[in-house]
Write a structure and sequence with these properties.
Blueprint (H helix, E strand, L loop, with lengths): L5 E6 L6 E6 L5 E5 L20 E5 L5 H11 L3 E6 L2 H14 L3 E6 L5 H15 L4 E4 L17 H28 L3 E7 L10 H18 L2 H5 L2 E8 L6 H6 L9 H13 L7 E4 L9
């Protein structure tokens, strides 16, 4: 701990992550996992303005992705909508243009295609300007669920990693470069509780754990930190309420409202003086999965 710094601990509401906070004599602040020391970079309160002008939501579909896009547009942001489904994002973009103070652009993008991701960000940048918020909601449920070590094949791991890890990586790297050249910003990578627990599906578990490592490593990157770029690993520990899930699991009782999740994610991007490197969101009546 550098001389002149004081330390205290707190646990964020709706999060199981215990965070260490430090403040220097000059008022600068640093937040990180309990038991760690501040790196050689600090973001002062006056420098930590992350109000969003241009956001990209990657993996947009009925449920969380569309709710996140709407929440940013309601705050007046310009939103790029990344999804494979051209028809869905075009309809959503038209709706957001009419019903919110913001604006939106449909950007049909396959996150497994690096060139398509680069082209998607270029299209958003040309129309709206540099990206200062990225939210990846591509859960890719079912991709590469090949069972345990004796049953899983290399192809199963490749399928699980392609969207869950590499798709997030492609988006996060491109967005972070935009933010670093500008005034900073926020990258939010959504994940499931499988990021912290064992799983019967080896491919899915390795991908979920790797995504967490990607997010936490980005957030600890001193070069990004000095540029005001923050990364949040968001664990969605529960069942998101959407039509397909309701139809598949009619007997399930507790559902998480995607609009409420979106509100939390928007708040993390908009916060000026507080940063959460990792947050766990779940239904208030559910026990944590880890």
């Amino acid at each position: 701990m550098p001389v002149g710094w004081t330390r205290w601990r707190f646990s964020m509401y709706a999060s199981l992550t215990v965070v260490t906070a430090a403040r220097g004599a000059d008022g600068e602040q640093w937040f990180g996992p309990a038991g760690t020391d501040p790196p050689n970079r600090y973001v002062g309160a006056a420098e930590a303005d992350h109000m969003t002008e241009t956001a990209v939501v990657a993996g947009v579909g009925p449920g969380l992705g569309s709710s996140v896009a709407r929440r940013f547009a309601e705050d007046g942001a310009a939103v790029g909508l990344f999804a494979r489904s051209t028809e869905y994002v075009e309809e959503l973009a038209d709706d957001l243009d009419v019903t919110t103070p913001g604006t939106a652009a449909a950007v049909p993008t396959d996150l497994t295609d690096g060139e398509a991701v680069a082209d998607g960000f270029a299209a958003v940048r040309e129309r709206f300007g540099p990206v200062d918020a990225l939210v990846v909601t591509a859960f890719a449920d079912g991709a590469g669920d090949g069972g345990g070590i004796l049953d899983a094949e290399t192809a199963d791991l490749a399928a699980a990693w392609e969207t869950r890890v590499l798709g997030n990586f492609r988006c996060a790297r491109t967005a972070a470069a935009d933010m670093r050249r500008g005034d900073g910003g926020t990258v939010l990578l959504t994940n499931s509780a499988a990021a912290t627990t064992p799983s019967a599906s080896l491919p899915a578990a390795t991908a979920r754990h790797a995504l967490r490592g990607l997010a936490r490593s980005m957030d600890a990157d001193p070069e990004l930190g000095a540029a005001g770029v923050q990364t949040v690993h968001v664990i969605v520990d529960g069942w998101i309420d959407k039509p397909s899930s309701r139809a598949a699991y009619p007997d399930h009782e507790r559902w998480m409202d995607p609009d409420e999740i979106a509100d939390r994610l928007h708040g993390l991007a908009a916060a000026e003086t507080v940063h959460a490197g990792e947050i766990d969101l779940r239904h208030p009546r559910d026990e944590p999965s880890f």
